[in-house]
Amino acid sequence: GPIKSETKMLRTLIKSSLNSNPLSPSYSNEEEHMRFYLRCCYSLLQLWKNEKEGRHSDWVVCLWDYFCKALDQPFILKANSLEGFATVSKTPSKVAEKVRNLVDGEMEYNETSWSTFLRILGNVLKCYDKEWRILNSRIYIKFHSRRMSELSNIGLHNTTLLFLTLAWSKDMAVCTKLCQLLSDVQDNSSKKLVAVVQSLTATAYLLNLKNCHLGELTKTIEKKILSIAHQCSLTTDLTERREFGHSIVVLCNGLQEVMEASSDLTLGHNNLYSSALSNFCSQASVIEQGSILSFVDAGLSKVMKATMHLHSLADGTGLDILETLWRNFQGYIKSQLLSLTPPSNLGSICASLVLCATRLQFFKNTKPNISEASCLFLYIIENEIISGRVALQFICCLLKEEFSNEYLAKICEKYDEKLVGSLLMNMIESGSSEDVMVASEAIFSTPKLKDSYKIQLNDKL
């Protein structure tokens, strides 16, 4: 048929016209030509879209043979210039948005040749089932352990976009292959580590969107955390240590975004809170600790929201996340309670732990159970050594939650009196009149104390 002959003609034109060496000195000029060339190819594909004849893999493979040699290229228009270069954010949501647009969206005029190639690839795979086996095998064969380690951080980002385009357009199992390849990247470069963890968090975000289990991904992430910890312990250079530590910050910020966007907590999210991550806390800087605890806080916030609904409570939604967090992070959290400079969100995290444990207490063998929740509550409320700022934040976060009074009554019969005692003990030490006023307002809004203790508080003030 005419379409079949036209696809063959396009294949012949591509093979005869493409420069076999995309790394030539004139590459930046060639990129300008390639953008136009790829737009023409994409326009032809749109004309053929409803036709089932013709082997599109033949001409797409020719394009791949060109681009597989140029993965390290930034695909900018002019050498040593930012002209024509669109800075792409590498946060998980932005990468996922980019991939979805390549497969399902409209082509943008200023797209790079690489983006347009991915758009062509994604559309061919989405519309023509028979092309998957051929294209899949031709792409996979170009990647192995040595190749992945040779790629620059730009090359790793381009490779991630390639595999995520394959996954979104055809089969999310491609994400497992990507994780295996990223696992093979050597970890002696801080820039490559950042590129790898950005790729892993983007993969997690895309799996979330498809409601796929995180599976192999969590193992790869844990392996990378162990590698980062090892590199941080080896180096004696402060700048190098800071650069390796930055990859943990990027990882946790990305995973926090993944957790916040999750609509289903039964997909293996608990495995993201690994012992490798909690063990890293002992050697982490203040900034690194902050990013880890923000990720912990995001997980607890998700469990808190889930346990507000009766059907989620009945299913035990979030129970595995709570138990994993308690098992791996309780030691670190308790040690930070006694720190002279505790993390800024420590009180909030402890409040979430207490409330989540209390809400899920009717599941047998839950850790933390109701007794441990009570111990943590009393430890913070009654301990004079603990920072007043942490204690007041703990109180405010406890009481702002709906039905918190009912839950607190389960762990301490006279919880209201304990809260007043903690307020009086910490109001001066906290150093913030605003914290005191917020905490006192929350405490005296509890049912038993609306009309009690006001004289005692006014005397102290």
From TrEMBL:
GO terms for biological process: double-strand break repair via homologous recombination; replication fork processing. GO terms for cellular component: nuclear replication fork. Residues 9-308 form the Protein MMS22-like N-terminal domain. Pfam families: MMS22L_N. InterPro entries: MMS22-like, MMS22L_N. It comes from the Eukaryota. PANTHER family: PROTEIN MMS22-LIKE. This is Protein MMS22-like.
